[in-house]
Amino acid sequence: MSRCTAPSSIPPMKDLTTDNITENVHIVNSQCPDPRLRYLLNRITTYLHDFARETRLSTDEWQSGIQFLTEIGQISNDLRHEMILLSDTLGLSMLVDSINHPRMQPATEGTVLGPFHTHDAQNVENGATLHSDPDATPLLVVCSIRDSAGKVIPNVKVDVWEGDSKGFYDVQNPDRAGPDGRGVLVSDTNGEFFFNAIVPVPYPIPMDGPVGKMLSKLGRHPNRPGHVHFMLDKEGYDLLITALYPRGDPYETSDPVFGVKDSLIVDLSSVTDPNMAARYGVELGTRLLTYDFVLLTDQEARDLRRKNAIEAMEKQKRKVVFHNGLPVPADE
């Protein structure tokens, strides 16, 4: 076993108390050569220690918290992302997305990825039917993609996924043989893509795991409003992860993962034009969702993130420098 010599620059840490332990942890972590990581560890240590001191955290509560996180790891796998679900239900996912993918008019707003995205969706052509659900109400989805100047964007990879008419995703089926209710399309030369889905219905997030138990103890309901997920990806443009929510869902204003935004609530209509029905190969009366997505370029998003970071540091009365594009207080 190799042994490391204790750095001589660190003062002896003896007689640690509730008042000085945070400072001593900062001293040890200050050896980190990466300024961004050093800053992150400084702040999370400060907040965790202040939380324990402020609440007078008991040993039993600390042990319960450790066990809770352990159980989240144990139930998670490639198809079930319980840690993402925890982050979603605490509002952290939505916050991180808003910070890292800021939007300005007329760009489409983002929302949470959610715990049900997979990487096994098949590449399909425009007009494909994504579901095998015989009980669902068919929905034609017709969308366009443009940049902030209104120019169409072709060849955008569009990853789409949604639950079935019973409110379940394919990954929740114990007999799942492959992807269903999901697919990957590419926008055409007009920046358009279209596919056959189903009218989304509200559904409960998984309640059989640690996060579900947490929600029950908090007296929170688990029901998400119906929605269709979209991930739009093309080199040179800021990744957009979002979802569209049909208006009037009973859980529209109380989403347990805080994902609903006014700009993402849509009105469904119906296909009433015979020419449109013929063009897209659907029956008259088929429910219809149309939406115009607007992407920011990578540079537009970087500039906006930098501007927001500087403003956030100024509110803390701190000057900022950037390390690998990420903010660090100049005095750290």
Automatic annotation (TrEMBL):
<dbReference type="InterPro" id="IPR050770">
    <property type="entry name" value="Intradiol_RC_Dioxygenase"/>
</dbReference>
<protein>
    <recommendedName>
        <fullName>Intradiol ring-cleavage dioxygenases domain-containing protein</fullName>
    </recommendedName>
</protein>
<keyword id="KW-0479">Metal-binding</keyword>
<dbReference type="InterPro" id="IPR039390">
    <property type="entry name" value="1_2-HQD/HQD"/>
</dbReference>
<keyword id="KW-0223">Dioxygenase</keyword>
<comment type="similarity">
    <text>Belongs to the intradiol ring-cleavage dioxygenase family.</text>
</comment>
<keyword id="KW-0560">Oxidoreductase</keyword>
<dbReference type="Pfam" id="PF04444">
    <property type="entry name" value="Dioxygenase_N"/>
</dbReference>
<dbReference type="InterPro" id="IPR007535">
    <property type="entry name" value="Catechol_dOase_N"/>
</dbReference>
<dbReference type="InterPro" id="IPR000627">
    <property type="entry name" value="Intradiol_dOase_C"/>
</dbReference>
<dbReference type="Pfam" id="PF00775">
    <property type="entry name" value="Dioxygenase_C"/>
</dbReference>
<dbReference type="GO" id="GO:0018576">
    <property type="term" value="F:catechol 1,2-dioxygenase activity"/>
</dbReference>
<dbReference type="GO" id="GO:0009712">
    <property type="term" value="P:catechol-containing compound metabolic process"/>
</dbReference>
<feature type="domain" description="Catechol dioxygenase N-terminal">
    <location>
        <begin position="34"/>
        <end position="106"/>
    </location>
</feature>
<dbReference type="InterPro" id="IPR015889">
    <property type="entry name" value="Intradiol_dOase_core"/>
</dbReference>
<feature type="domain" description="Intradiol ring-cleavage dioxygenases">
    <location>
        <begin position="114"/>
        <end position="295"/>
    </location>
</feature>
<keyword id="KW-0408">Iron</keyword>
<dbReference type="GO" id="GO:0008199">
    <property type="term" value="F:ferric iron binding"/>
</dbReference>
